[in-house]
Amino acid sequence: MFGLAAFVLVMGALFQSIFMLAETPMDWIDTGFANLGSAAADWLPDNLLGSFIVDGVIAGLGGTLIFLPQIFILFVLISILEDTGYLARAAFVVDRYMARAGLPGRAFVPMLSAHACAIPAIMSTRTIDNPRDRLATMLVLPLFSCSARIPVYIMVTAMLFADQPLLAGAVFAGAYFLGIVAAFAAAVVIRGTLLKGRPNPLLIELPTYKRPHLRTALTTAIDRSGLFLRRAATLILTISMVLWVLGSFPRLDTEQLPAATAQQVEQLRAGQASPQRIEGVLAAAQLEHSLAGRLGKTIQPVFAPLGFDWQISVGVLASFAAREVIASSLSVLYGMGAEAEEDPTSIGERLRDNVSPAAGLSLLVFFVLAMQCLPTQVITRRETGTWRWPLFQLGYMSILAYSAAFLTYQLGSIWLG
Hints:
Layout: H1 2-21, H2 23-43, H3 48-65, H4 68-84, H5 86-100, H6 108-114, H7 118-124, H8 131-140, H9 150-160, H10 165-193, H11 214-248, H12 259-270, H13 275-289, H14 291-303, H15 310-318, H16 325-337, H17 347-354, H18 357-369, H19 374-384, H20 388-416
Helix pairs in contact: 1-4, 1-10, 2-3, 3-11, 3-16, 4-11, 6-7, 7-19, 8-10, 9-10, 9-17, 9-18, 10-18, 11-16, 12-13, 14-15, 15-16, 16-17, 18-20, 19-20
């Protein structure tokens, strides 16, 4: 019991450190992209090209790269723990609990790897000899919080607890532990129904404690962060640009403005409101009229019980290609639709203006539990040799995520208002 308590304390301190140490570099990145967007808006012409670069490219990248400090710090700390020899002992500590869930002790390493990315974690299950043990491990690995979920966790906790880093860190760690608990609960159900049988016992040699090598930790963190950046520079940027196109077309002419919007614009002009505020109202009308707005309103009733508006619904749909896309997607969608002020705001501030605390918690729980990573599905198909198990994985995780998010929103609406 003491070993388990120490494990929980170490993991809690790790995630708390991530939030507190990354706060300053996050502010630097946020300010840098805000200044870059302002400078680009002043330099570029006020047309579609300028909007594409500012609202599509810069906002999309900025909404994702702001989370790079957390990702880098996470891998530095995990690498240090591994280098000290603690993680091997942690595997020994949790083995008895994993056995109760029907998972083998050897699954600890894939589970740890899954906190970086589920793809190499699933591939690493090849070291598990028993086919049923291996399949059960593969089916629950995506429930462990990978690095692609970090932007979502940071985005939501920054929205809910902007000036409370300790509480934000606790909720951040809670998201990780929710994924762990859900994975073990799913393993219990799967091993008790579809894949009955006892797991093989763990045989492991415990290493001695050693001094960690900071150079090794930095090298690992740089490598993992580089992988994240390459994804940000390709997939995330591509989806951000696609979202800009969906949010910009078809164009809404002045004569097509809804009566309420036209009246609001006239009142703002009569009251000598700033051009930025008027442009913000027009941008919101354009976004609602666009393909993205129409798509979001079409699928929004499905997500309404979770507290999601149509912008979040579009972001959830886009994030099925890769979870971390949700941050850049909402940055683009809310950025184009917000009533802009003189200075751009961060995605956390935009969300605070548009999303209730209950809906924010619902979004957090949904992304903790949802299977929103097509590459993971492809790897599961390749490792199992059939589409049966990846589709089962997608189905049970989607039902679990929706149900848990629904419960969170309903209870949150009562307690938080």
